[in-house]
Design brief:
four-stranded antiparallel sheet, binds pyridoxal-5'-phosphate
Length: about 425
């Protein structure tokens, strides 16, 4: 019996149930992944007892000799992983990291140009209920209605008209590559800073399967828990010493107090794992698996936005199968496959029940899935749609999913 089990059976039981849910189901939520046992281990240490406001060598409390070892390792590994000169590993999550960058570079009311949220952008890119949208004036580019892709001519046109102080490239639900150099040339033309938010694709960038914006853009932010496969948290990267000082000050004392050292330790472990050659195989396979899922679904008559994917995710217009996004999410849950409803560009439906679902291949690739298993997933999704009002069929599909999933143990990692 674990200590938690004897001390707090309720929390223990919920944790156990979640573990079973993850073991028996398949994770297609594009922002999720499975961390290694070493990452999990690093998160549950006595570092949680420690206050460490400040940065290595410059703290506001005593007893920092081992904290400094951990944070310095995390910084050095992040820098070598992404080829960046400066890294801040303290952001508690992606949204606060983005706010810190805005706080460092902008004054309230300044104009920012980013991807429209209902075209794949993120809450922290100017949604009216988010601090970003309340404090700053966001103006947005969209994807082209016929190609489903960002049109750089439109980006340039809006930039010339709106004269943003910051141009933001990055997404939560866009399956195509971003032309970093073109964004940079537009920003240079209008005198804007460039910020890449690679929260979703960081693991693919780190694994050298996608071109990196580091060295092209002024600042790169990312979460550490999506394709990068680390603990929940974030990271700010830059090659500019001047900007790095601004970001450090914006994180502490600007926005945060004490850093979460166990999370930083786990980030260091994850960066160490991502520096191994096997991580590049993972990154490559994530993309191959997403492309396979996308083409198999299209063969079965599903409409994939932009007709395919260059990364780990795809957005499927489920109205092509007579279902809404919310209905699809619920249906796939019923057969043990997790997905997330998503708006599609120019969505005629409302955000709470949009037309699409977003699917991602990172977690199942971590689990060891290859092309054959992606075919199986496409097949199950298709059969679930076809049997949507047949409870017995759905239950048997769920058993098939569980049989496959349990053949790929959750924590078996390269
Ligand atoms: C997930 C995501 C974030 C925010 O991450 P949280 O850790 O959930 O705050 C920021 N930007 C983009 C593009 C994302 O996809």
């Amino acid at each position: 019996m674990s200590i938690l089990q004897s001390q707090d059976p309720e929390i223990h039981l919920a944790t156990l149930h979640e573990e079973l849910r993850q073991i028996h189901g398949l994770e297609l939520i594009a922002s999720e992944n499975y961390v290694s046992p070493a990452v999990l281990d690093a998160m549950s240490s006595v570092f949680t007892n420690k206050y460490s406001e400040g940065y290595p060598g410059k703290r506001y409390y005593g007893g920092q000799e081992f904290v400094d070892v951990v944070e310095t390792l995390a910084i050095e590994r992040a820098k070598s992983l992404f080829g960046a000169k400066y890294a801040n590993v303290q952001p508690l999550s992606g949204s606060p990291a983005n706010l810190a960058v805005y706080f460092a570079l902008l004054n309230p009311g300044d104009t920012v140009l980013g991807l429209a949220l209902d075209h794949g952008g993120h809450l922290s890119h100017g949604h009216p209920v988010n601090a970003s949208g309340i404090l700053y004036k966001f103006t947005q580019y969209t994807v082209d209605k016929t190609t489903g892709r960002i049109d750089m001519n439109q980006v340039r046109e809006i930039a010339r008209r709106e004269k943003p102080k910051l141009i933001l490239a990055g997404f939560s639900a866009y399956s195509r590559g971003l032309d970093w150099k073109e964004f940079k040339s537009i920003a240079d033309e209008v005198g804007a800073y460039t910020m890449a938010d690679i929260a979703h694709i960081a693991g693919l960038v780190a694994g050298k399967a996608i071109e990196s914006p580091v060295g092209i853009f002024d600042v790169v932010t990312t979460t550490t828990h999506k394709t990068l496969r680390g603990p929940r948290g974030a990271l700010i990267l830059t090659n500019s010493e001047e900007l790095s000082k601004k970001f450090d000050r914006a994180i502490f004392p600007g926005m945060q107090g004490g850093p979460h050292i166990p999370q930083i330790a786990a980030k260091a472990v994850a960066f160490g794992e991502a520096l191994r050659p096997s991580f590049q195989d993972y990154a490559k396979n994530v993309i191959l698996n997403a492309q396979r899922l996308s083409s198999k679904l299209q063969e079965k008559g599903f409409t994939v936005i932009s007709g395919g994917t260059d990364n780990h995710l795809l957005v499927v217009d489920m109205t092509s199968k007579g279902l809404s996004g919310k209905e699809s999410e619920r249906l796939f849950d019923e057969v043990g496959i997790s997905s997330s409803r998503s708006t599609i560009p120019y969505d005629p439906r409302k955000p709470l029940d949009p037309s699409g679902v977003r699917l991602g291949s990172a977690a199942v690739t971590t689990r060891g899935f290859g092309l054959e298993q992606m075919d199986f997933i496409a097949d199950i999704l298709d059969r679930a749609v076809a049997s949507r009002s047949d409870e017995a069929k759905l239950a048997s599909l769920k058993a098939e999913v569980s049989a496959l999933a349990t053949g790929y143990p959750l924590f078996k990692m390269a």
